[in-house]
Structures are given as C-alpha cells and as structure tokens.
DNA sequence: GAGTTTTATTCAGGATACCTGACTATCTTT
DNA sequence: AAAGATAGTCAGGTATCCTGAATAAAACTC
C-alpha cells in the first residue's frame, strides 16, 4: 500500500530526471560550437559503444544487439564512416556481410568521452553512489527482461535473445 | 579517491540505464499500434506536462519554462492542437500573445498517462524506493543549477531564472 | 544443378524533435 | 510619430528512428 506511494514518488522523480537531464543535454549541445554531440545511448553513439565492447561486428549483429532496424543501423554506420570513426569492409567468408571496425580515432573518441563523469554525480556521497549503482543494476536487469519478453518470440527471435544477453555484460 | 571509482560505476550504470530504457521505449512504441507515444520528457509531452501544472501559459512562457526555442514550442503546440489536446487563443490584453489551454481530452490524457508507474520500479523494495527518490532529488537539483548557470547570464536572462525555478516545483 | 527461399545490405520516403534565420504583427519607449 | 523590443510564424535544416521495396549473395530443395 504505502509501497505504491513510494513508487509514485520515485516515478515522478524519474520523469523529472528524464526531463531535466534532456533539457540540460540540449543546452549543452546548443552551447557547444562543434556539433560533437554523441549521447552514447542513442544513434551513432550507441554503435560506437557496441563496437568498443566488441569490435568487428557486422551491421546485422549491431542491429540485433542494439534492437535497431538494419536500415537505421546502416544510416548510423555510414555517418560514422564519414567522420572516420569506423570502417566498413565486406567479409570474405560471407560476401553479403559488412564488417565494421573502429578506427583509432573512433577508439580514442570513446575513451575520452566515456571517461567523462557527469557533474551531478559529485553531489552524492559514497554511500549514495553505492545505493544508486545497486538500484540501477536491478532496474536495468528488469528492463532487459522486458525487452526480451516484449517481442513476440518467433522461433527465430529466440536465437537473438542469446545475443541480447551479452548486452548485459557490457558495463561491468 | 575510492569516491571516483564509485562515481565511475554509477556513471556506467546510468549510461546503461539511458540506453536500455531508450531501447525499451522504442520497442514499446513499435508494438503500439496507435502511434500514441508521448514520452513526457520531450516534445509535445513536455508541453502537456507544463500545462498540467500551470494551464493557460502563453507560448513564450512555455518556451522559457521548458528551455525550448519559440519555434519549437510553436511546432509542438500546433501538433497538439491538431490532436485536440490543447487550444490556442489570442490574448485580449496583449494581442501578440497566444494563450494555450488544455482541453478536457488533453487533461484526461495526462491523467491516465502520468498515473502509469513503470514496471521496473516494482523490483525495488520500499527502502530502495526511498533511496532512489532521495538521490534523484539531489541529482535533479544539481541539474537545475547546471541549467541556470550554463546560459550566459545576460541581464535579461536573469529574470528568466525566476521562471525556471518554478520548474523545480512541478514534481512535488 | 536449377529454382526457391532466406539473409545482409541498400535506397527511397516519412515521422518526430530540435535548431537557426528571416519575416510580420503588436506593444512600448522616447 | 519613429524606433525598438516582443510574440509568433514561415522556411529550411539536422538527427534519430521507422516502413516498404529492391538487390545480391548464400543456403536449401528436389
């Protein structure tokens, strides 16, 4: 009962967090002269992150790993190629496949970018940081389950779930 | 020192959270036959949320409140008008201004939508929910400060900060 | 081995969320 | 009344996604 109230309170704070962070993100992007925006949890950033954990994936593998359509994936990869952050090359074993590799510049970009710690974490104590990490772990796992279950599990999709579980190990 | 490690851990989890939630969001949107997606922390949803706290704002006020350009705001408002969720009418006091009001349908939509509690909160204990709420409060406050400071504070901008502080009171 | 089906990728086109720049009304100041 | 500030609009652009339709290579079928 009171649990529900607590859930509502947290839910409100989460909406607020989403909104304010999004706003802050937009402002940062506006003020940033170079359009270097790569929020790492969408679009090109997502691809980069995936490759940093597992270089040399094919476009198709990227798409299934990231739950994107092949077309979206192709679009992001092409943009990254233009920026010299990744390379595309046809596989010799299966000439249909295109294998994507990070360039040095790409790897470098990920390193500098992912080492940035958002300012707002500095207001938290050690104890709070531990709590947050712990809570987010639970939430993320719950979301992974949601993702795996939400797709009508065709016999084919089942094999993809295995891949999706790797996703889980990215951020350890 | 060890604080930095904890910050890094939390930062990683936060990136993961952003990514997985974004993915789950996209999937939900795909499976949803009607394209009723309104993530509430961007675009049209943001406007709706603002009006639910404070009906009858002008477009300009919405824009400053939400840190959007007047043009973006106009776009979202027009889309909402088409969906019969809000109404536009010229102010009598100042004929330049357009006052935006929620329709019954709009209010209804917000009610049903904002009463939804994300599934992933159900995996948390009462204690964890309290911790999360507490932590997010701190983080959000820190982000508000960031937003207020990040804009080159022209003399004019200063007056807007007052408005932005209202933003803060939305989710109590 | 020829014919069909399945895959991996691409091209074309569409939606939404933002943005900047260039107007047009309508106050407000001087 | 002229000049300036303010609220909105129109036009056009970028990024992230999507669906649908086409192609080429591999795998399966008989």
UniProtKB/TrEMBL annotation, chains A, B:
<keyword id="KW-0805">Transcription regulation</keyword>
<feature type="domain" description="HTH marR-type">
    <location>
        <begin position="1"/>
        <end position="141"/>
    </location>
</feature>
<protein>
    <submittedName>
        <fullName>MarR family winged helix-turn-helix transcriptional regulator</fullName>
    </submittedName>
</protein>
<dbReference type="InterPro" id="IPR036390">
    <property type="entry name" value="WH_DNA-bd_sf"/>
</dbReference>
<dbReference type="InterPro" id="IPR036388">
    <property type="entry name" value="WH-like_DNA-bd_sf"/>
</dbReference>
<keyword id="KW-0804">Transcription</keyword>
<dbReference type="Pfam" id="PF01047">
    <property type="entry name" value="MarR"/>
</dbReference>
<keyword id="KW-0238">DNA-binding</keyword>
<dbReference type="InterPro" id="IPR000835">
    <property type="entry name" value="HTH_MarR-typ"/>
</dbReference>
């Amino acid at each position: 009962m009171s649990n529900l109230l607590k859930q509502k309170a947290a839910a409100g704070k989460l909406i607020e967090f989403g909104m304010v962070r999004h706003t802050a993100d937009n402002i940062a992007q506006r003020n940033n002269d170079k359009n270097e925006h790569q929020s790492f949890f969408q679009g090109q950033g997502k691809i980069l992150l995936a490759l940093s954990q597992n270089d040399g994936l094919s476009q198709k593998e990227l798409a299934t790993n990231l739950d994107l359509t092949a077309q979206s994936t192709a679009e992001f990869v092409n943009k990254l190629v233009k920026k010299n952050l990744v390379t595309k090359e046809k596989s010799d074993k299966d000439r249909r496949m295109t294998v994507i590799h990070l360039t040095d510049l790409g790897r470098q970009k990920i390193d500098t970018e992912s080492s940035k710690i958002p300012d707002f974490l500095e207001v938290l104590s050690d104890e709070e940081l531990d709590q947050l990490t712990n809570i987010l772990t639970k939430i993320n796992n719950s979301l992974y389950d949601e993702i795996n279950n939400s797709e009508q599990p065709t016999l084919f999709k089942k094999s993809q779930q295995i891949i999706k579980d790797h996703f889980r190990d990215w951020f350890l």
